[in-house]
Amino acid sequence: xxxxxxxxxxxxxxxxxxxxxxxxxxxxxxxxxxxxxxxxxxxxxxxxxxxxxxxxxxxxxxxxxxxxxxxxxxxxxxxxxxxxxxxxxxxxxxxxxxxxxxxxxxxxxxxxxxxxxxxxxx
Length: 122
What we know:
The protein is mainly alpha-helical and 122 residues long. The chain folds into two domains: 5-68, Winged helix-like DNA-binding domain superfamily/Winged helix DNA-binding domain (Arc Repressor Mutant, subunit A, Orthogonal Bundle); 73-121, no CATH class. Helices cover 64% and strands 3% of the residues. It has six helices and two strands, in the order H-H-H-E-E-H-H-H. Helix 1 (5-20) crosses helix 3, helix 2 (28-35) packs across helix 3 (40-52) and helix 4 crosses helix 6 (104-121).
């Protein structure tokens, strides 16, 4: 499943926070404040979805245990393209949303998957 803009915002905040704090993850309260949410349960839901999709890992009952994962770029690209096709979203919009991550491996994987899907559609 592709990230929604708010999920991407949450993931970027967590990634940047961990980078700035030398490996210390943000608390739910810090995520809540950074994203302008009213409750910590909203932050928890975003983290749960990110974890479900493989973008982060957490240890149960351990505070500040968020770890940003580096999922296989080709797998992420495939999920984005497949999701776009099932939702009727244009490939250009999907490509734009995927190019936000920092890794060039992901960009190359998206291009490869998009070309395969384009060949299948023709």
